[in-house]
Amino acid sequence: MFEIKVPQEDSNSETGIIISINKPNLSSVKKRDVLFEVETNKAVFEVFAEIDGYVSYTFELKDEVTFNTIVGYIEESKAKAKMMLTNLEKDEPKKIKKDIKLTAKAKKIIKEYSIDISSINKKGVITEKDLLPLISEKKDDPFLDIEKYPSEIKKVLIIGGSFGAHQVIDILDDYTDVRIVGIVDDDKGKHGKIIFGNKIIGSTDKIDDLFESNYFSHAIIAISGNVVVRKALYEKCLSLKIPMVNAIDKSCTIRKNVTIGKGNVINGNTYIGAFTVIGDNNFLSANTSIDHHNIWHSHISIGPNCVTSGLVEVKNRCRFGMGVNIEPHLIIGENSTIASGSIISSSIPNNTVVKMKSNLKKSTKEEE
Amino acid sequence: MKVVNAIRDALQKLLETEKEVLIIGQDIIDPYGGAFKITKGLSSKYPERIISTPISEAGMVGLATGLAIDGFKPIIEIMFGDFIGLTFDQLLNHASKYPQMFEGKTCSVVIRTPMGGRRGYGPTHSQTIEKHFLGIPKLNVLAINQFIDFYEFYKYAINKQTPTLIIENKIMYNDETSVIIGDVYSEQYDCWLHQIEDYSYQAYFDQNTKPDATIITYGGMSKIVIQSALELLLNHEIYSDIFILSDLNGDFPQLIQESINNSNILITIEEGTKTLPVGNHFLSKISQNNKINFYYLPITASDSIIPASKNLENEVLPSKNLIVKKIKKAVMSLNV
User: Fold this and answer.
1) Which of A125, A166, A187, A188 to mutate to test the interface with B (most CBs of B within 10 A)?
2) Which residues are within 8 A (CB) of A91 and not within 5 positions of it... i.e. 6 or more apart?
3) Residues forming beta bridges with residue A184, ordered by sequence position
4) How big is the CA angle at A260 (ends A173 and A281), to the nearest 5 degrees?
5) Which residue of A156, B149, B309, B335 has the fewest CB atoms within a 10 Å radius of its CB?
6) Which helix (H) or strand (E) holds B255?
7) Whole-model pTM?
């Protein structure tokens, strides 16, 4: 008796599908005859007879078989093969029925949350989307309590699925203690879209349920253009007691005794001088230069290449364009907006809009 | 039932039911029964209606055209699709024009031919060249797929008033047919198959999820494309809507436009070469009367001969790996 095993030809698969049987049960085979073909995710390969004889298999066509396990026998005589086949039928063959297909992400979630998928009544491939309701059901499971997770791994939800999200994900992907679990955005047209491999899973109204179900442990707001919405979402997160993470690009320079709050996005090559205090939920674009002893409050959003000298204070909900320069000892009042390229040489009261005066004279062709 | 048997059965049924049907080709009579055995057994049953000819593809189509304008319904077998270049003049200057040139005349000629590679047949027996025929007005260019009712399909073709070229991809001949009517979940392909027109189908994975990619394909690529789309879903959760067309010159189903509106990307996949692919023809049809605001990615064979070595052939023709890689890259970049 010779045991037939399916060799593991593909290191990425543990099982394969029998796609053709060249020598059916009880056939006479010669050494090197092709017995059957197996398909894996990557390739189709043939399994050969290693001796002459008669075959009996534990599987049927289209069955999934596990590599390196016995899937059949070659016997010296047809009678022995027949007896073996009868025994195999009695013994419940060692085969995995081809029934449920799971995406890689779904497999990961099932493993992570120990989910029982028997309640999913769906034909076809099971994806992450199919599992979300089951994750919610697991909220009472103590195993899934956030506190039980290794504290170094933050499961981060990105709030906002536009260009800001691209920047935030780009930054967070460099952090080994962060795993982005999804993005929410109120534009339904974006739902299902993927940003750097992360899916927009729904609207911001799902935040409560997702947090309650421990789908994520931390959040960050990736909206750069609208400080009012930024603030409202931040306050919503605070009310739900959602911990907010910072996304600080690894190329930034943070000097001694700098204090940075929560939920800030700080893009590449930003410099923050000594003793500066940065509040919460700010969005600083690339190449921001904040000199020493600044105080930046919260919900501020600025364009790239803005520079503040020492001892500047920027209050809540300010918006700067790109390339704004602020001289030392000045205070920028709350909810102020400063246009790109402005050079600020005196303090600005609350709710001020600073525009640049253009020196360019526009002329029509007729005037010329 | 295997595709080869389904075509043979369809032809036999047509011979039975339509007395005007004749089959013309090289080496098609028994015992040989054609290079791919499609006509095996037919000449024994209908000896006067299965006509074996010398090697003269143009002569065969000329003969068939003459018979057709006289009321016959000839079905020609061109042994390999690579040889239909020899029929071009007959189709362009005669068969396709006669119904308009001569009032009251029809030209119900069907030319069936095995097209495509993946069998190691080399540069002149593996090509996919139907694109050269799409520009002939009044020539119908159809492609089989494994989901059609073969009898109805060939009956539909032979009863058209103008000539029809039917592309049968030779790698499909040994595939099992799976006739789809309506909306059916396929255990074989792990997807839903939806009959959108008589002989065209949509394959999709989840009706309630917007597609990330809209794919149009036809013929022998259909199976590889569905397998690629499944891999994209399993490994990357990229959802594809696949449209398998049978009439390459026909009107486009509205469903395709709706799918593109959701995915913002049209991917056409074919086994023909890169220059002027059939996909461009599809894009042109979709763009008529529509604003183009989506990304277009044609996936084709490279502009190369098809090597006889199977390994090299696989590098030239669009493989599952190549399709997965290109679609993944396109969808990811589109969503970033």
Assistant:
1) A125
2) none
3) A159, A202
4) 70
5) B309
6) helix B254-263
7) 0.60
